[in-house]
Every structure is written in C-alpha cells, then in structure tokens.
Amino acid sequence: MKIVKTGDLVAADLPNLESPFFAAEKARALINSDQTGRFNLGHLLNHPSSYGTRRNDQPQRVDAVIEKIKNRALWLVYDVGDGKPFDPVVRWKEPAPGQGQWILTHSDTHFALSHTVNRLNDNGVTPQQLALSGAMGISPLSASTVAHEARPRQHEDALPHQAAPTRHHTSLPVTPALPLSASPEATQTPPQEQEPEIHLEVGLFTDGTLNNADNSQILEDRIEAECLAPLERGEISEEECKYRLGLMMGDSYANSPSNVAKLADLYIESNETSENRIVHRIMEYAPGIGTRSGEGDSVIGMVTGLGETGILMQLEKAFTKVAQRVLELTLTGPITTLTVDLFGFSRGAASARHAAHEIHQGSNGGLGRAFRAEGIDWPNKVTIRFVGLFDSVAAIINPKSLDLLPSNNQNAPVKVYLDPSTVQTAVHFVAADEHRENFALNSLRNPDGQLPDNFREIALPGVHSDIGGGYGDSQREDVLISPFHHVPNDRINAPEQSMQWDMLEALKQQKEAEGWLGEFSLPVQASDHPNPRPNDLGDVGHPRLEIYKQVSEHPGPHGRTELALRMVRQVRGEYSRVSLWTMHELASEAGVPFSDIDPEDEATHLPDELIVIKDQIREQICANSESPSLTATQLNLLRQRYIHYSAHYTPLKFMALGIPTTFRLFRNFSPNAPAESGERIVHPNR
C-alpha cells in the first residue's frame, strides 16, 4: 500500500482508493510499523527538506498525515498483492454485459476524482482500459485523455501481445507492447512530433446590482483602520462607526459578498500539461451593476441597469479582461476548444444570459471582438458548459425606447433569452417569497410554462438576496410593511377608531398568520421610531409587529397623524449559503472545476439547523423536485430567523453633510414596494 497526494494520483489508482474513514487508522498502523522509511512524511506534508526529522516530531507528523487523509488531501492506495479496498471510493458497476459504469460510493468526494469519474463514463472507459492508462494524472480533464489513448487499443486488445507491458508508478500495466510493424519504413521513420492541443476553460462571474466583493472588503478595511481609535476613546460605538461608513461609502460597500463572489473564489485556475494536451483555466469576476471598485456607486446604473456601470458595460469590461488574461498565457498555438461557465445573480444573472448570447455569436460577438482586439483567433469549437443563475432580474429602464418600467418584459438592448440549444446545462434558483414590483423574475420557462430538458428552475424559500447572498450575518430588520395612511382630521385624537387603523389591523393579522414572528424569533433591540441609528437603539427585547403612529404638528391647526404597519426583528444571513452549497454541487457534477467548500470557513459555514435543511433540499433536488418541500417547523424556523422581509415602504437613508438622513419622495412610493397583486411578476424565457 502507498499514501499518495491527490495531485500525484494516476488513473489506474482510482479503483484502488480506500475510503478516508477506513484509510485513516489503516494508514496510521502502516506508518507506525514501517521500519524501512518508505513513507516520506515530509513529502506528504509538503515540508521543505530543511524542516528536519527530529524523532519527537514523529507523532505530530503522523497525526497531520492522518488528518490529511480524513480531509481527502491524501489517499491510501492498494497495490498489487494488497487485495481490494474494504470500502472503495470508486468502483465499477455492471448490471448487465456492456452496461457498466464507474460510480462514486461517497457523495463528498474530492472534485478531481468526481469529475474524472464523470469523464470516464462519458468516454466509455472500461476497467481494462483504465488499467492500461497507467501513469496519466487525474486532473479534471485527463479522463478524456485516458479515453483518447484507450480507443486505439480497443482492436489491439484482441491481438496477442508480444512483449510484457511496461509499469509506471504502479504494478498495473500501462501500455501493451505494440505489434511488430509490417513495413520497414514504419521502423525507420521517426513519428512527426505533434503540436499539443490547447484547451481553454473560462469561468465568468457577473455580480448583481450593488454587489461588489471588492468594495465589501474595502469597507471592512476602513472599519478596521478608522473605527478603532474613536472606539478606544469612547467617542463612538463600533456599530455606529460601521453604520456611518456604510451610508457614506454606498450600498455596495455595506453589502456582504454574494454567492457569485464566493463561487468565483472557488473556481480553480490552473495550467495542466499532459502529452499532447494543454489545459488552461482562468476566472474573471465582474463587480455588480451600479458599482465601481473603490469608487462611489452609480445611481444611473443602479436604477436603469444601463450606462457606464450597467449590464452591457459590465460584460464588455469582463470580456476584455478575459482576452487580456488569455494573451498573458503566451499560447504556443491556436485554441482548440473554449469551454465557458457562466454564473450570475440578479441583474448579473441577466448579464450571464446576455453573455451566452454574445458567445454564441462567435467571432462577431462580444467575447470574439475582445479576442480579435488582442490578436487571438476564435476557437473552432466553443461550448457553454454550465449557466448558474441566482434569481434573474433584468429590470431594465431604457428612456431612449420609452421603456420606463423595470417590471415589464422589455429589456432591450439586453438579451435575456437563454437559448437551450447553445447551453449544455442551466440551473436557476428563484426566490419563492419575493414579490416586489421592481423585482420581476426572468424565468427560464417557455411561455407555455415548460422547461427545456437541459434547464432546471428550482424555487427555494426566501426573498431575492436570501437566494443570491449579500446580507450580513446578522441584521436588525426594521421595516414598514405598509405605506403611511393619513388619518382624517375627525379621527386625529382617536386614530384607533379610524378606518385606516382597521385596515392595518387586518394586514397585521395576515402577517401574523404568515408566521413572520414566533418561537424561533431572535431578541432584538427596541427603538421608538423606524430604522434608527445604532446609537438610538434601546434595550434588547422581543420582536414586534405593530401599528406605528407618526404625529406632526404641521400643517395647522390640527396637525397630521399617519399610520403604518411596522415590523422589527433580528434576522440572520446564513441561509443564502444553502443555495451556495447546492449550486456548487450541481455545477461540480456538470464538470465545473470548483475546489471543495470549506465547511468551517466563516463565509460558507452553516449552522447545524441549516445543515439539516440543506441536506433535505439537496435530496429533493437530486430527485428532480422543482420546489423542495420542508416541514411546517422548518418553514417557521426559516421565516422567523433567516428569511428577510424585502417588500416594504421603509424610506431610503443616506449621508448628507456628514449626517444620516432619511428620504421619502412620496407617501406611497418605495423602490421596494410589493406588486399590486401581492404575487411576483414572472416573465417567460424569450
């Protein structure tokens, strides 16, 4: 037996891998009983030669190796004479002659293994051919190389071998000896060296409106640099400092990184070479609509989806950067194939759909023009492998074409139609609880409500950013669920007896029945008025759903009294990671080169109560459910603790002359107002 790094595994190792659970203690026993030094622990742990081999370090090094085996960074591989693994990670299943396939016995297997197994099955590689593949690496695309090498041998397998096979790294055969050539010229003329094929894979990640991971980090750096000193002097609280900086710098700074940004960080950039094949992988992240990294947010881009920070410019800049990255690779020849993966959230999802349209235009499309500008030939074969969308909302306003409503289905010049014939796989997660007027959904469904066979559209509980990400880990949510209602003068002294009060009382009962507050609600700090500054918050208490009364002395002589329904809660933000984990898995299964999600990373960690929900949703999605169901208790947990309330009339806030200011344009106006029907507006894929 041997212990091998993931990157050092060869194709023939796959059926001989022991599961990490059983491999851990087996490996410990092997290392502890080793008297020959055949296990180079320093190499396995990536320690430099100068690290030293003090005897008292041995137990710690053994523990570190075992931990890497458990984490799938190292593998225990059975060799000839060792028998078979007790619990193999990869095995061949053949229910009937000629119907065999490779299967993974563990769902959480390393990406390189799972992707290679998929490629082995796609290319029909059998155990015999895999054994002949010998020392080929298991990088995610090498399975096609295995198949390429195996196919010429299929007719040779029936011929008698005239020499023993050569062995490389393992005791399994690598290649059979070639039959003697029938012509002298074949033995005298050396084969002409073939130029390696160049395969390019690109991951393009287009973020949503006011989502910009660069700016999120800039705000964190500013908080650390500027809030510490006044905090230590007692001049300001950390919450107040962060609140002021967020208002001053803009929403794209105050928002947390979205799922698109987190997936971009997981996309594997690499350069791999094997015999006659070179594979380059690059990733490009495009900051969201209405944002500029390190600069102020753009109102025009935010409102219209167009302009210098709109969808078209977002893509043009991203295509240019991709072409520049390709140029930096200093390729030795033309690109044989280009494979593209597209991911987007909100307007960034519309951008991803427009990107698919442009890529399909070939050399005349946006990416083709960017390639031509850098002197790069357009590849003969281009594939859009995967499109991953989080709640597509184009919401284009184009005054030039008299399109003034973001909720309609007029999105020119943006092309949101996603042609199923140009995409291998598309997955769209949509927000089941979203119903804002300005957040109409651009569905992947046809006008008849049907989905193409290679498309999936899955409705998950939550609102827009509960699906796409961007909320902080914990947020005090103080929203006006209704617009303000003016109380007539004859009821100013007794608003509880007004018709307006009765209307709001009925709405209050409706929201109580929907279960926004309950046993799973979190404690929240109180305040006398909606949307206060952190310094104005009071003691921690219970969440509230109440009729809020706003009284003004003007205009005279009676003044003015207005009523609105107000909800105050504390809401957590980790639920968006459920769709992150699920999209990551579906994309990986389709061949997207993602590294594994670290469950302990603070940006991707799930509380235990959400892990159960994530697993239940995942199981139903794997069974082809388009709308995974949860128990009543689970839905109450989500709604009361994790799902935000997005459709509201809360006034906008910003900094004016260094002072936090509230702005209300009209009594009933809000960019976040609900649709009149109370249900989401949905547009088909066209």
From TrEMBL:
Listed Basic and acidic residues bias regions: 148-159
Stretch list, region Disordered: 145-195
GO molecular function: hydrolase activity
Record keyword Hydrolase present: yes
Entry keyword annotation includes Glycoprotein: no
UniProt KW keywords: Hydrolase
Residue span, T6SS Phospholipase effector Tle1-like catalytic domain: 380-477
Record-given protein name: Uncharacterized alpha/beta hydrolase domain
Biological source species: Marinobacter zhejiangensis
